[in-house]
Amino acid sequence: MSSLRKKALVRLLLCAVVFIATIVFCFLLLTGTFDGGAEPASTPESSSVAEGESPAGDSAATDSVPAEGEDSSSEAVEPTPEPTPEPTPVNFDGLSEQPTTVYAEGEQPAFTVTPDSNMNLRAGPGTDFDKVAQIPAGTAVTALGTNADETWVVVQYEGQYGWLAKEYLNAA
């Protein structure tokens, strides 16, 4: 291997090492672990220091006097809590009666129709409501909501909403 190629290879490896070190340094700086992890990298104190300057070397940046009415004992800024989003009302099209409780996404219980017989999917929580469809025995369904006494659940089967009697469902 020629000396020119060796020099080029050494330079390439040196650049790669510097590049990786820069990425690690930036990650540590952004996550706050490089400065001890006491506070995030975007605090007012760290943003007032220009790039390349040391905060310890500039006494004006570290010896600031609080303005009148400011509390000098606590410099940490409390994060503003995120507002809780209001649940959007759910309307299950095609039902004669809407559920009183609607399960949140990820909290919906799974059931299996009993293996002995098919079940009638109904427009409301009761056998006196119209039959919407029939669900084959052993079919897995997910409850989307329930009535007040939790004896009937709303499910979606083949794109259609309906009610099933909970007593004929097995927890999955």
From TrEMBL:
Gene3D superfamilies: SH3 Domains. Residues 108-172 form the SH3b domain. Residues 38-105 are annotated as: Disordered. It comes from the Bacteria. SMART domains: SH3b (SM00287). This is SH3 domain protein.
